[in-house]
Q: What sequence folds into this?
């Protein structure tokens, strides 16, 4: 993902924030790769939600209520995918640490 800024989305979700964490370096980058990916995915997908919402609002065949329902249905699907990515990213460091501890205990 590029470092482009979408002003429709909170800056706190931009993936560059992961790279700015204390302790982030070449060694920790691989551990935090899924986290950075989750932030990048969320940031891009929320941009698509805004795009879709704008497209729905400009559809003259839909009532205001139908526009809202259609936009919300799309947003719900997108947010489910975003949540799954964040869940995976949250579990990943624990899995890595558990593996390192097993290797350390075995050695």
A:
């Amino acid at each position: 993902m590029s470092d482009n800024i979408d002003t429709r989305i909170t800056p706190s979700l931009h993936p560059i924030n992961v790279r700015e964490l204390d302790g982030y370096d070449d060694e920790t980058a691989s551990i935090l790769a899924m986290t950075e990916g989750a932030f990048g995915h969320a940031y891009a997908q929320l941009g698509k939600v805004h795009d879709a919402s704008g497209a729905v609002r400009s559809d003259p065949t839909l009532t205001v209520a139908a526009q809202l329902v259609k936009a919300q249905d799309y947003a719900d699907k997108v947010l489910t995918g975003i949540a799954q990515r964040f869940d995976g990213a949250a579990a990943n460091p624990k899995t890595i640490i558990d593996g390192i501890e097993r290797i350390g205990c075995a050695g």
Notes: DSSP finds four helices and no strands in the chain.
